[in-house]
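Why do we bother with a discrete structure alphabet at all? Because it lets us treat a fold like text: something you can write down, compare, and reason about line by line. To make this less abstract, here is a complete entry for FHA domain-containing protein. Read it the way you would read a sentence in a foreign language you are learning: slowly, and without expecting to understand everything at once.
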Amino acid sequence: MQGIVLQLTRIGFLLLLWFFVWAVLRTLRHDVYAATGQRPVPRYERKGRRSGGGGAARPKGAARYLVVTHGALANTRITLGTQPVLIGRAADSTLVLTDDYASERHARISRRGDDWYVEDLGSTNGTYLDRGKVTTAVKVPLATPVRIGKTVIELRP
């Protein structure tokens, strides 16, 4: 009887050890993708969509939308043009935030050639690109989070 209990204890300990290893690997994978700004692309998103012409030609991978991913305005999408996007609590901002941690004129995202740059406009709480504080105009890669207060936005193709 004691032999069976000992064997079941060993098997239980081995299962617990494998569960721990699996949890650690899962956490590391999540942290690596969060730090690099990349994520694994699900199979249903891998198929390329073809647009039917019209409009100005954009380079492959150029940003077309500004999407709010977290915050009170989550899932809001703004189509990008040639004009800069002003972000803040002011009523005349392109993206008006109802966030207590955002300034009246918090940040501006502007186009320079084919790239988009974010710059902080002297806000109290700062603007963050991924995890770094923005002090000068900084190029914003696609799908990289830009945090303004409790609001997170990303550029999307």
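What the structure line is telling us, in plain words: The mean pLDDT is 84. The chain has one helix and eleven strands.
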